[in-house]
Design a protein that fits this description.
This protein is α+β, with helices and mostly antiparallel strands and 299 residues long. It has 10 helices and 12 strands. A hairpin with a 4-residue loop joins β9 and β10.
Length: 299
């Protein structure tokens, strides 16, 4: 049975870095994958890190067609709501997600990875993330309330045995910048109606506002996903890094489109206070599929 990359489920890490790379012109995609597959995380019981590597679906399909989900494509076109609100497409070729207990080791490993991949792929974007009050995002609300337990997560996030791409996962990676001033000018009741849950206790509202974020991304309607969202930014520019894993892209796409133009018309109320500034889909192959490309000497 194919094994998922273990870092997907490594909860409790305090520091995160997301490195997105562009393949250098003329570079053989197979060489790029070999470089990524040969990366190694530090082996230490104290201060170690986890690595998760993913690829533009079209790139991975080029080098491993038998280990690729049928028809999977990158975030190659923006999603535009009827009122013009846009979720941008900023698809890159490779993503490496590094998590650890402290940012110093994450920073050092990130620098080493950039240097190791530099002959084949250039760093196109980087962002550091950190948890906010354990399980809240920067709106002050609990994040991931509907997340499955770790026991259930593999059946939600990982492609099942016998299917193309078994053991792998589809990753949606987006950076959402918050309008902190606008959001904090709302009363707690207004914020709760925008989210669809209470701020204290994270109890779903009844009745649930049709344009609330909970209603527009209802996993009972669209299917379950496994989220590893995290906060990012400075005092003046900050927000949420959306990190969503799924067996297929369809349920993630459906949620995004519902946020833009959902039932009853209009946008998810939360989109009036946050704007996606990036958007990419990556295929995160199984350990075995990735290891098949690793060189004998670690990078």
């Amino acid at each position: 049975m194919a094994t998922p990359q273990t870092g997907i489920f490594a909860l409790g890490t305090m520091s995160h870095a997301y490195l997105e790379f562009a393949v250098r012109p003329g570079m053989d995609p197979r060489t790029v994958v070999q470089r990524v597959a040969s990366l190694r995380e530090p082996r230490s019981t104290i201060g170690g890190v986890n690595l998760v590597a993913g690829f533009r679906p079209e790139l991975w399909a080029t080098v491993a067609p038998d280990a690729s989900p049928d028809g999977l494509r990158g975030f190659n076109e923006p999603i535009v709501a009827r009122d013009g609100y846009t979720l941008p497409a900023t698809q890159r070729d490779v993503v490496v997600w590094i998590t650890g207990a402290a940012y110093d080791i994450v920073f050092d490993v990130s620098r080493a990875i950039v240097a190791a991949l530099d002959p084949t792929a250039s760093l196109a974007a980087e962002i550091a993330g950190w948890p906010y009050h354990q399980d809240r995002d920067l709106t002050g609300f609990e994040d991931g309330t509907e997340n499955p337990t770790l026991v259930e997560a593999t059946s939600v996030a990982i492609i099942e045995a016998g299917s193309p791409g078994a053991g792998g996962s589809v990753l949606l990676l987006q950076q959402w910048q918050h309008d902190a001033v606008g959001w904090e000018s709302l009363s707690t009741d207004q914020q709760e109606r925008a989210i669809g849950r209470t701020k204290a206790g994270s109890v779903e509202l009844d009745p649930l506002p049709r344009d609330s974020h909970v209603a527009r991304t209802d996993q009972a309607s669209f299917g379950k996903i496994f989220r590893r969202n995290i906060g990012y930014g400075t005092l003046t520019r900050h927000g949420t890094i959306f990190v969503g894993f799924s067996q297929d892209r369809g349920r993630l796409d459906a949620m995004l489109r519902s946020m833009c133009d959902g039932p009853g018309g209009g946008r998810d109320r939360i989109t009036h206070f946050t704007q996606a500034v990036t958007g990419a889909y990556y295929f995160v192959p199984s350990v075995e599929a990735l290891a098949a490309f690793a060189s004998a000497e670690p990078v």
